[in-house]
Specification:
The structure holds 2 protein chains of 2 kinds. By secondary structure, chain A is α+β, with helices and mostly antiparallel strands. Chain A has one domain (about 1-90). Helices cover about 30% and strands about 30% of the residues of chain A. Chain A has helices spanning about 1-25, 70-75, and strands at about 25-30, 40-45, 55-60, 65-70, 80-85, 85-90. The radius of gyration of chain A is 20 Å and the shape is extended. Chain A starts with a helix and ends with a strand. Chain B contains 5 helices and 16 strands. In chain B, strand 5 and strand 6 (about 35) form a beta hairpin. The longest helix of chain B has 7 residues, at about 65-70. In chain B, strands 15-9-10-16 form a 4-stranded mixed beta sheet. Chain B has a 4-stranded antiparallel beta sheet with strand order 11-12-13-14. Chain B is mainly beta. Chain B folds into 2 domains: about 1-55; about 90-205, no CATH class. Chain B is globular. Classes of the chains: A alpha+beta, B mainly beta.
């Protein structure tokens, strides 16, 4: 049991060191928040949407509901925080 | 696409404004933890060490293809705009990585488009060129099926499925294209330099 505890402790410490080492590679390019994530998404129907036929979208289907996010909008916002039914999800590409 | 439920909280993700090896790092507003999407787990903050919950429920395709498949779809609208000029078009057309970042692993070119995924924690990659028309890869007790149509553009999602090797799941490009065999595989369509710099021990599938 003691060995198991020791092994678990060493594994946790190794993971922590690995994370710290990985974070040392982090480089801040822009102030946080400058790329504004979408947090209260608004939708229109396909008939209302103005999207070029050859534009790309990230499409998602959850619980039978389909939603589309233009890649160009995603490029500008990076993240759309969304929810369908009980599933909260982040659209990122 | 990521589940936002972690440790009993629903997180709100945003771009941290920073990069690791030229790849996107998210941050959440509830715990301020950092989440680099290429390594797939939080590396700093309260949730450090927590794996990201990637979901295989999404697919990139042209709007015309999507709306043909899902005419009832809703479409994200931001300030009355559903689509706009692509601010990244120069980047996608360039042979150079972001800020001229280069791949250290020379098996593929820096900007070679790849399909990348993890299986049991191990990172894999396959060049788009090697999976046009569909290809299967036996990986331990499982088989990964990767498919790209010769008509796909750069931004079309690779169709990827995973099945147990002994399930007798026959590989058929047409069925894979229709989403037939196996379970969807959670992976990335990305560039070689992004994946290989962040996952140097990856296996390149041929």
């Amino acid at each position: 049991m003691k060995n198991l505890f020791l092994a678990a402790t060493i594994a946790a410490m190794s993971a922590s060191w690995a994370s710290a080492d990985e974070f040392s590679k982090y480089r801040q390019i822009l102030p946080r928040g400058q790329i504004a994530a979408v947090t209260k998404p608004h939708y229109v129907t396909a008939k209302q949407a103005v999207v070029a036929r050859d534009s790309y979208v990230l499409g998602v289907v959850v619980e039978g509901q389909a939603r589309a996010y233009s890649l160009t909008l995603l490029n500008n916002h990076e993240v759309v925080n969304d929810q369908i039914g009980d599933l909260p999800f982040a659209a990122v590409w | 696409m990521y589940d936002r439920r972690y440790d009993g909280k629903v997180l709100t993700f945003e771009a941290s404004g920073g990069l690791i090896r030229s790849s996107l790092v998210l941050q959440d507003r509830e715990t301020d933890s950092y989440w680099p999407i290429m390594s797939g787990q939080s590396i700093q903050g309260e949730l450090s060490g927590t794996p990201m919950k990637k979901m295989a429920v999404n697919r990139k395709m042209t709007w015309s293809d999507w709306v043909d498949m899902h005419p009832e779809t809703l479409v994200l609208s931001v300030n009355g705009i559903e689509d706009q000029a692509d601010t990244y078009s120069n980047y996608f057309q360039s042979k150079r990585g972001f800020r001229n970042t280069k791949a250290k692993d020379k098996r593929l070119k820096t900007k070679a488009p790849i399909y990348a995924f993890r299986l049991k924690g191990k990172p894999y990659a396959a060049s788009y060129n090697d999976i046009v028309g569909g290809k299967q890869f036996k990986l331990g007790g499982q088989v990964a099926y990767l498919y790209r149509s010769p008509y796909f553009g750069l931004h079309d999602s690779t169709l990827a499925y995973i099945a147990d090797a002994d399930a007798g799941c026959p590989f058929d490009a047409s069925k894979v294209r229709l989403g037939g065999c196996g379970e969807p595989l959670e992976g990335f369509d990305t560039f070689w330099y992004n994946w290989s710099l962040n996952n140097p021990k990856l296996e390149l599938l041929k």
